[in-house]
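Backbone shape codes:
===
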Amino acid sequence: MDAFRWHWLGALSAVLIISGCATVSKRPPDPRDPLEPFNRALFRFNTDFDNAFLKPLAKGYRAVTPEPLDRSISNFFYNLADVTSAVNNLLQFKMSRAGSDVGRVVINSTVGALGLFDVATNLGLPSYKEDFGQTLGYWGLGSGAYVVLPILGPSSVRDTVGWAGDIMTDPLTQIKNEPLHAGLLGTQIIDRRADYLAAGEIMDDAAIDTYSFWRDTYLQRRLSLVHDGNPPAVEGKDDFWDEVDFEGKK
């Protein structure tokens, strides 16, 4: 991200801190979320931005994109994510998983026509999608405070630090052609947002505190991922989130 964008985000954050701190929750504070007033302000901004720009684009994309093509586009970007996953499995010394990730990239990038077809899954190679936030958690770094990032959404201090590593290992960052890079990045964002349209509509109709819902969902899901699906027991939680696939499917 260039310097202009960082300055813009810094200015936006300063404004949101002021506006967010003016709203004090009447509920007992959640110790995982010490920045809740600020985070809620950013959550409202992200929701407004999504409703104004991302959701309409995603609906238009879904309307004009045939389902087989949509699936192939998603497969292409998930294939790129396997590169980052392979690096992180190596850093965690999970050699069999790293080998599976490398195998997926090789097979899907060749037989699968640059990842447009997920041949590797049909051959029995599972997808793990490890990231640097998970790697930091694997080596004992706690998640830290929950944070909401502008546009990017739910995160934590640990996962925000890990995000820098994800960017460095993302094959898209190696593309030097700016128009091509911007086009692929934009397509990835819209394609991923389209995958969540159905879940978003359910959330819009539910009479719940959506901020708390997404916070609890995110933190519980990340805990499960760090522990490879076997998280330590957390008082007051159940196994509901283990039944949900957060790649936009059930």
Observations:
- Residues 35-243 form one domain.
- The radius of gyration is 19 Å.
- The first helix runs from residue 3 to 20.
- Residues 1-25, 235-250 have pLDDT under 50 and may be disordered.
